[in-house]
Amino acid sequence: MLLVQIKPSGGYHTGIENKPAPAGKPIQCEKSKTRAHPPPR
User: Fold this and answer.
1) If you ran DSSP here, which 8-state letter would residue 11 be given?
2) I want to staple 15 with a disulfide (CB 3.0 to 4.6 A). Which of 2, 21, 29, 38 is the partner?
3) Confidence band of 2 (pLDDT split at 50, 70, 90)
4) 13 exposed, middle or buried (CB, 10 Å; 0-12, 13-18, 19+)?
5) Would you say 15 and 2 are in contact if contact means Cβ atoms under 8 Å apart?
6) Phi and psi at residue 35, to the nearest 5°
7) Which residues make Cβ contacts (< 8 Å) with residue 13, sequence separation at least 6?
8) Would you give the distance in Å from CA 38 to the centre of its chain?
9) What is the pLDDT of residue 9?
10) CB 15 within 8 Å of CB 8
11) Region labeled Disordered — which residues (predicted)?
């Protein structure tokens, strides 16, 4: 199971734990995060 989480620092997980998305590349979770999990409260 692939988990997509939002890091407290503002970075996004791409399925790899403690691995922020590379700078300069579009965040893969950006458009799929709404399907992956409910919005943060």
Assistant:
1) -
2) 2
3) low
4) buried
5) yes
6) -85, -30
7) 3, 4, 5, 6, 7, 19, 20, 29
8) 12
9) 56
10) no
11) 1-41
CB 6 within 8 A of CB 14: no
Token representation of residue 20: 């922020």
Residue 19's H or E segment, with its range, is none
Could you tell me if 11 and 21 are in contact, meaning their C-beta atoms sit under 8 angstroms apart? yes
Question: Which amino acid belongs to residue 7?
Answer: K
**Taking a C-beta distance cutoff of 8 angstroms, is the pair 12, 27 a contact?**
yes
What would the two tokens of residue 2 be? 């692939």
Instruction: Compute the distance between CA of residue 38 and CA of residue 4 in angstroms, rounded to an integer.
Output: 11
Is 14 in contact with 4 (CB distance < 8 Å)?
Answer: yes
